[in-house]
Specification:
The chain folds into 2 domains: about 180 residues, no CATH class; about 210 residues, no CATH class. About 75% of the residues lie in helices and about 0% in strands. The protein is built from 19 helices and no strands.
């Protein structure tokens, strides 16, 4: 039975990869490899000569603490998505759920699926270890990848069975965990990792997947209904109106619609991106030798990248725009304005943190303010402007936008802020490509 189900899953995966194989196996590795080699060369060879950034290195203790912190964040951000997959409230009448399949087979299939889903996350961790030269930890991402799905499944099922799937309570617990990650000695981390593995893996297998998963189905479904149908409060509606006044009038209704959809959880990625941005802002307080422009570019990219899943999720509903007098350029400019709008406060916040933690003379402060604003505007514009470059595939768009954002940050923050002017011909080229793609798709 397991072989039959596994073969069917592989066929579905092959059909998906048949459309995007060039993205995952050619374009993605090439662009990530170029960015990796370029970043290593700049940080290690050119940093001291340029004078704007310093060589980056982290200690073994910091690498271990950051690794566990990223694992905790993964569990937190994957909590509700995994709950949707564990409790099939939206697909309860599918053939797979109605077949008399033993829970052990279901667990094995789910475990293998989770391994495939987690692979990009741990490959990214492996790349970061290579980037910072921590080659002694190279084998650990492989071992953690093989066993981590069992811990994540067991934790999710145990939490939902004893408490409601509320992210506020969950966030409180993870804040406590982050406190212990910064206080406990690194030598004790392996003992705690073994304890959680021994606790959650058997509990999720024998009790969670066998019994609790079916007992809590109705309660989880009610939570999802309340979570998705919540209304925007009056204060939030007023804030949206004020924000929309900052964008051109021709695209104002489209930007307002995108903001409302994002606030109503149409794009769940916004909360993950917002939390990562907050962590990036907190890291600015102790940025050491890394230039503030790098933090600004990272935070702006994380926030403005919300536009990619939004654009992808709107694709099935886009024919409804045919009844409106909209041009393809307006659709593209709306997404560009949306990306700029949600990322606009980030350079201001980073500049405020810098002035509070490391005061400098006003001429240098003004220069830093200008650099951060230009970096933020350039990165958000490239992320929003390249929205059609991935053919509505967020992964490809992330790769293209990340590569261009790295180059823009280097040109503006490292070499000369006047190179910001190169952004205009790039956006003009992206606009032409986007209009062609949208017209071929049938938006107008």
């Amino acid at each position: 039975m397991f072989k039959i189900i596994f073969k069917s899953k592989l066929r579905v995966m092959r059909r998906m990869l048949a459309q995007d194989w060039a993205t995952y196996f050619i374009l993605g590795p090439v662009m990530m490899g170029v960015a990796f080699l370029l970043g290593r060369r700049i940080f290690n060879d050119f940093a001291f000569g340029v004078g704007r950034i310093q060589s980056v290195s982290i200690s073994e203790e910091l690498a271990v603490r950051l690794s566990f912190a990223f694992l905790v964040l993964k569990v937190f951000f994957n909590f509700l998505p995994m709950a949707r997959r564990l409790y099939p409230t939206e697909r309860s009448l599918s053939i797979e759920d109605l077949l008399p399949i033993d829970f052990q087979v279901r667990y094995k299939v789910f475990y293998v699926e989770q391994l495939f889903r987690d692979l990009p996350f741990f490959v990214g961790g492996l790349v970061l270890l290579l980037f910072f030269g921590q080659t002694q930890f190279m084998v650990w991402p492989l071992f953690i990848w093989l066993f981590f799905p069992g811990v994540e499944i067991g934790f999710t099922l145990t939490w939902i069975h004893f408490w409601s799937p509320d992210r506020k309570q969950l966030a409180g617990v993870f804040l406590i965990l982050f406190f212990f990650l910064g206080v406990l000695p690194v030598a004790q981390f392996s003992w705690w990792a073994d304890f959680f593995t021994i606790l959650f893996v058997p509990l999720g297998y024998y009790q969670g997947f066998k019994v609790w998963r079916y007992q809590d189905m109705g309660r989880v479904e009610q939570f999802f209904v309340r979570h998705e149908t919540r209304k925007i409060k009056t204060a939030a509606s007023s804030l949206l109106r004020v924000l929309c006044q900052c964008v051109p009038e021709t695209v104002r209704p489209l930007v307002r619609r995108d903001l409302i959809l994002t606030a109503r959880n149409f794009v769940p990625h916004i909360w993950r991106n917002l939390a990562l941005v907050i962590l990036t802002l907190l890291a600015v307080f102790n940025r050491r030798d890394i230039d503030a422009s790098a933090y600004c570019a990272l935070a702006v990219f994380l926030m403005s990248s919300t536009v990619a899943p939004l654009f992808s999720l709107q694709r099935p509903f886009r024919p409804m725009d045919n009844v409106l007098p909209l041009s393809a350029e307006q659709v593209w400019r709306a997404k560009l304005s949306f990306a700029r709008l949600i990322a606009f406060p980030i350079p201001l916040l980073i500049w405020g943190i810098e002035m509070g933690m490391r005061p400098i003379p006003w001429p240098e402060a003004a220069s830093l303010f200008l650099t951060l604003m230009l970096v933020g505007l350039a990165v958000s514009s490239l992320v929003g402007g390249s929205i059609c470059e991935g053919d509505q595939r967020p992964v490809l768009q992330y790769i293209v936008a990340a590569f261009m954002s790295v180059l823009a940050t280097l040109f503006i923050a490292v070499f000369n802020p006047a190179l910001f002017l190169l952004l205009f011909p790039v956006l003009s080229s992206l606009k032409g490509s986007a209009i062609t793609r949208l017209e071929n798709e049938g938006v107008v």
